[in-house]
Design a protein that fits this description.
The structure holds three protein chains of three kinds. Chain B is an alpha+beta fold. Chain B contains 20 helices and ten strands. Classes of the chains: A mainly alpha, B alpha+beta, C mainly alpha. Chain A: It is found in: Cell membrane.
């Protein structure tokens, strides 16, 4: 049986820890404690933060790799260009649509599947194994699988299936590119949500459920008034982690639509990638990166407060 | 597997976890030498994964046998990806590659920047290489200040392939110099979407090397262009507009399904599988279209010049060529490979080992004098050479322009500009944005680029 | 309502739900099964309209993938995945210890810092990384990927392992230190055995993410250091008919992680929630 961290920390441990931190930690002891942390911390700072400082520096310059010798300081002009770039706004919107669309649909499907799997039936572990498989397929592999084998307008399986019920062939990746990408993403992330919700369901105290059923509450009442509130933290956690991963989606877009047609299905990571490795406009790409990072920090600090609550991080 | 060994030492448990990870990753791995190289010199060759290049990879053992000291490794990617990687590497001096496949678009600019080696000394020092044998228009396009900086693997123009068998059946005739109006009419006659058969295949995939190549030739022949002589963007002039509208309407009305995401490769598959009556694209298509092993229409195809409007010809000029980045530390070995892949013997080798119809076309005049090749290429040899000879700005455009290139604009910004405009056109083909809007947006992009050049002119 | 009807109605509903579960499970699994089936086809059967359902299976595509020089890619993926996972554990275990058992000041700030690096789009730093790697002559070098994958997985690993360490009852450690066991011995003989399953879960997650990583591999490698996801992309030629071989490559590439995930489902849940769920 599983329980969540939320219920995990015992009162005694908490008390012991509080006492420990109240004691003034001596200088030497402080360094002894910090010692084990430093290698990881320093490594992370060097590898993730230094490049970002360079990005900021690039963002203040006009540099196109294809025109060597024209590397000049331009102040904030790259940022002004971004403000005027309608494609940047469109791709930002796409990022939001793709991220929220994927996470919400996957979560709803995940809850349904988790509820179905939470009942005893023969072969349950086989069904669960089948259901988690999409999450384990390499994203690059699943992208080509979807774009070529399933959604191809001529020999794709989805159109053939739709044809059986008399629906005309649809050219998914060019007519509904975002829907096509969402299909592949939802397929990949539903198992993730399902696993988290399933863990939540299995951590549900059985006596409460029994009490509810003795009280004569129907299954729907029990679900909405007991199960759903209990699942809330698991759902929040799933949504937050899902957002962290899905917002950076690159593989599916790169391989399924290349951001197209036009820039209809490009998200911010893909658009920045294109500006950097197609336009070679380093200043512009760097400025976009900085803008995205600032936006992420704003959104993330709200999200992180929620995460911290889920993990019960305390000083 | 993930239980700790009972009572076992914790260090061992950690190692076990790590070892499990490694074992997992290694599953089924032959463990070839991944880090470091073999003996001798190792060169890395970056190429575009078109069929002719795949053939070269499959023949690499022949090169190895002749040059035992040189270990060749290939990086082969689809066109857009290859271009991004190669450009990034060469422009930043990344130095990952010793041989790169580029084109007549990059060669003069990169030569000017000093990013690629002058190959003329190597050419002159290599006996029997015979650079004079290269198709003249191609040789010129790959030269900078009269020295060749890259050598052609194959050269191409564009022409119109059509199913001669179906034309005959339907009692239709392909004019000697078809116009875009003729093409539209013929495509309309043969288009049969119910049978998944399209009147014509035209590229629609975003990318300056994809949709913008055939579309630019249409723009040229209708009297439009990217820029006029004074560096004014001219994508929204009536002439350019008519060309763009004609192209988009043709592909929407009589073109293949999924047009907005189909590039050369997709069209090739479709035409070779007999699902299209016509296809306006690169002359290099013949290597696959006429190969019975990969095509169901071999021997049933006729070839006509690129469709025109107001010019005498309209075909483009393009060459996939090999260059050596200045950062390469193995330039001699790199040249060994470059010369192997572009000399006369290589053509013979492909002909004998793989098939004469698979020979890389349009690079050397002598190719067309080989009897075996002349035999298989009867249907298209003349059409190819004619198209290539006619592929000059004089005969494919109505007015002079301030840049080199026919289906591209030979300035560094074009890679980006062409792709952005291509994205707009691709979106218009998909019906995602109205054609007018796509043209207006493209014009704005082009104008931003032109500003820099107008400013330079004034100085 | 008699007990008998209630039971039989419950059974009928149960039957419907079970059937529904299986249908959904099959629907989700189907694309993977289709990929596997396609890998055993000839190319013209793979891209046929209507789809080919019955065919004589062939190993040609697998042979083509394996003989096409996939060994280097697999070896590179193995090194990048294996070494980065070991490094993550070496750096992450002490860090997690310093954030749980004997905590430093400002634990939540440090945790915030680690997790915030996961939220930053990697694409924002790819250009500096590319340029610097080019200047240091470490492009197309597998150790560059090792370093980046370590940095990519370290924050998650620290979070996960911290949550495992927090579960170790304080009394156990206190008892050990009262017994006079030295710090290192306490760690080795008391702490490690208790958290080993958690470390295994952490390793599994690191392996999955590193094995599947594509963005860095695409941009920073060429041939010597190219990994398996890059192999799949190179299998996409402009040639046209390539579906069966692509599926074979995709299947082989995904198989290690699929099997690992199947075997260690429980660790997977724990790992995916970064330790928040047991």
């Amino acid at each position: 049986m599983s329980t969540s961290t939320i219920d995990r920390l015992e009162g005694s441990r908490r008390a012991a820890r509080a006492a420990a931190s109240e004691r003034a930690v001596s200088r030497a002891e402080g360094w002894r404690r910090r010692g084990p942390l430093l290698p990881a911390l320093i490594f992370t700072i060097i590898v993730t933060q230094l490049p970002f400082l360079v990005t900021i520096w690039y963002s203040l310059r006009s540099q196109n790799l294809l025109r060597p010798g024209e590397d000049i300081f331009v102040g904030l002009s790259n940022y002004l260009d971004i403000a005027a770039d309608s494609t940047f706004r469109q791709t930002a919107l796409n990022s939001v649509v793709i991220t929220l669309g994927c996470v919400l649909v996957a979560m709803v499907l995940g809850i349904v599947l988790a509820l179905l799997l939470d009942r005893p039936f023969a072969g349950r572990s086989v069904a669960r194994t089948m259901l988690i498989t999409p999450f384990l397929v390499m994203p690059v592999a699943s992208s080509v699988l979807w774009s070529v084998a399933l959604l191809n307008p001529t020999y794709g399986l989805l159109n053939w299936t739709l044809g059986l019920v008399g629906i005309e062939a649809v050219d998914w990746t060019s007519t509904y590119p975002i829907v096509a990408i969402l299909m592949a993403l939802v397929w990949q992330w539903t198992p993730f949500m399902m696993l988290l919700v399933l863990a939540g369901l299995q951590a549900q105290p059985k006596d409460v459920l029994e009490a509810a059923s003795v009280d004569g509450a129907g299954p729907w009442r029990t679900f909405t008034s007991i199960t759903l509130p209990h699942l809330r933290r698991y759902i929040e956690l799933g949504v937050l982690l899902g957002v962290i991963y899905v917002v950076n989606t690159f593989d599916q877009i790169y391989l399924m639509t290349a951001g197209g047609p036009g820039t209809a299905s490009a998200n911010l990571p893909f658009y920045i990638y294109q500006r950097a490795f197609l336009g070679f406009d380093i200043g512009q790409a760097a400025a976009m990166g900085v803008v995205v990072v600032i936006a992420t920090i704003i959104v993330a600090s709200a999200a992180l407060r929620l995460i911290f609550r889920s993990f019960e991080v305390k000083e | 597997m993930f239980r700790p060994p009972r009572g076992g030492s914790p260090v061992r448990a950690t190692l076990a976890a790590g070892a499990a990870a490694v074992a997992l990753a290694l599953s089924g791995c032959a463990g070839a030498g991944a880090v470091g190289g073999g003996e001798g010199e190792q060169i890395v060759v970056a190429i575009v994964s078109n069929p002719q290049m795949q053939d070269a990879i499959s023949l690499q053992d022949v090169f190895r046998a002749a040059h035992p000291g040189v270990d060749v490794r290939f990086v082969s990617l689809p066109e857009n990806e290859a271009r991004a990687k190669i450009t990034a590497s060469v422009a930043t001096g990344g130095g990952e590659f010793d041989v790169v496949m580029i084109s007549n678009y990059e060669t003069p600019m990169w030569a000017e920047n000093g990013w690629i080696e002058n190959l003329q000394p190597y050419i002159d020092a290599t006996e029997g290489y015979d650079a004079d044998d290269f198709v003249p228009s191609v040789r010129e396009a790959l030269s900078y200040e009269d020295d060749m900086y890259s050598v052609p693997f194959y050269g191409e123009s564009s022409f119109l392939a059509y199913r001669a068998d179906l034309f005959e059946e339907a009692g239709l005739e392909m004019p000697e110099r078809p116009t875009w109006d003729d093409v539209r009419e013929l495509a309309g006659e043969l288009n049969d979407p119910a049978q998944d058969f399209s009147g014509i295949c035209l590229r629609g995939l975003a990318g300056w090397g994809e949709v913008m190549a055939p579309m630019s030739t249409a723009i040229n022949t209708f009297g439009g262009g990217w820029f006029d002589e004074d560096w004014n963007a001219t994508l929204d002039t009536p002439e350019s507009r008519e060309a763009i509208e004609t192209y988009i309407d043709t592909v929407q009305s009589f073109g293949q399904p999924g047009a907005a995401t189909s590039g050369f490769g997709d069209c090739l598959t479709r035409f070779a599988q007999g699902q299209s009556a016509m296809w306006y694209d690169a002359t290099s298509m013949v290597s696959t279209v006429e190969d019975p092993a990969s095509s169901t229409v071999a021997g049933k195809v006729g070839y006509a010049p690129a469709p025109v409007a107001d010019t005498e010809s309209a075909g483009w000029l393009y060459s996939w060529s090999l260059a050596i980045p200045s950062t390469s530390e193995h330039k001699d070995a790199a040249w060994d490979f470059v010369s192997w892949m572009t000399n006369k013997e290589y053509i013979e080798l492909v002909g004998e080992e793989i098939g004469w119809e698979r020979v890389p076309p349009g690079s050397r005049l002598s190719t067309y004098e080989i009897p075996e090749y002349a035999e298989v290429s009867q249907a298209y040899a003349d059409a190819t050479l004619d198209s290539m000879n006619g592929a000059t700005q004089d005969s494919a455009m109505t007015h002079p322009v301030p840049y080199p290139g026919i289906q591209f604009v030979g300035i560094p910004e074009f890679q980006d500009l062409g792709t952005r405009v291509g994205q707009q056109m691709s979106a218009a083909i998909a019906g995602q944005v109205p054609v007018d809007e796509a043209i207006a947006q493209s014009q704005r992009y082009a104008d931003t680029v032109a500003e820099t050049y107008r400013a330079q002119e004034e100085q | 309502m008699s007990d008998v009807t209630r039971t039989s109605r419950g059974r009928a509903t149960g039957g419907v739900l079970t059937t529904l579960t299986w249908l959904l499970a099959l629907a989700f699994f189907f694309p993977v099964a289709w990929m596997a089936a396609t890998a055993f086809k000839q190319e013209n059967q793979a891209a046929s309209d209507p789809p080919t359902w019955f065919f004589a299976p062939t190993l040609d595509q697998f042979r083509a993938v394996i003989e096409g020089g996939s060994g280097t890619y697999v070896a590179n993926s193995a090194i990048a995945t294996g070494v980065s996972t070991v490094l993550v554990l070496l750096l992450g275990i002490p860090a997690a210890y310093a954030l749980s058992i004997r905590p430093v000041e400002k634990v939540s700030d440090v945790l915030f810092f680690f997790i915030s690096t996961k939220m930053l789009p990697v694409v924002a730093v790819i250009v500096p990384i590319y340029v610097v790697a080019g200047q240091l002559k470490v492009l197309d070098n597998i150790w560059t990927l090792v370093v980046l994958y370590t940095a990519m997985n370290l924050p998650i690993a620290v979070w996960m392992m911290r949550s495992f360490f927090l579960e170790v009852p304080g009394e156990v450690l206190e008892a050990a230190s009262v017994d006079g066991a030295g710090l290192m011995r306490t760690l080795r003989s008391v702490l490690m055995p208790m958290v080993a399953p958690g470390i295994a879960a952490t390793a599994l997650i690191c392996v999955i993410f590193a094995w599947n990583e594509f963005f860095f591999a695409l941009n920073l490698t060429a041939s010597r250091a190219a990994t398996v996801p890059v192999l799949i992309v190179s299998t996409m030629t402009s040639e046209g008919l390539f579906l069966a071989r692509l599926c074979a490559a995709a299947l082989l590439a995904s198989l290690p992680v699929i099997i690992a995930g199947w075997v260690a489902q429980k660790q997977l849940v724990r790992g995916l929630s970064m330790g928040a769920i047991k």
